[in-house]
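hiii, so i know i said id send this last week but things got crazy w the move. better late than never?? heres the sequnce for the chain we talked about at the cafe, plus the structure i predicted for it. fair warning i was half asleep when i ran it
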Amino acid sequence: MLLNRFFVIFTICLTSCVSLDSTFPANLSFTKNVDEKFINILGFKLKQEKYFNKNLSVISTNSREKILYGGDGLRAQQKEIFFSVQFVLDGNELQQEIVVSDLVIIDELNPFAENATKETILLNLKYQAANEVIFELF
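okay and structure toks below
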């Protein structure tokens, strides 16, 4: 029951992000602060669930990139972050891989645009996890 609630929450979270389609939707809003958005999405959702205990921790993080092309000379770089999290639910230790994705717009005319790289995202996630910022549940 509680595990189902967990998956519902993250389904809602993931559907609020950009889908993994190979097309480039024209009506999406983009963010350059992808690392902060990922952290906020994951942290907010977990903080709302009181049945998690403080044993929740990040085991590992990983990311990959996918380039999508659209009109008007713009590229979108899709960022996917994989959270391997470990948590205790009803006395059972579980491990779950969570995928969160978003698109960052890349202006080909401005190669110096302030976009978060995957190294920045991973560094921030590791820093946040090490300092228990994401996972302060209570």
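btw The chain is about 30% helix and 35% strand. thought thatd interest u
miss u guys!!
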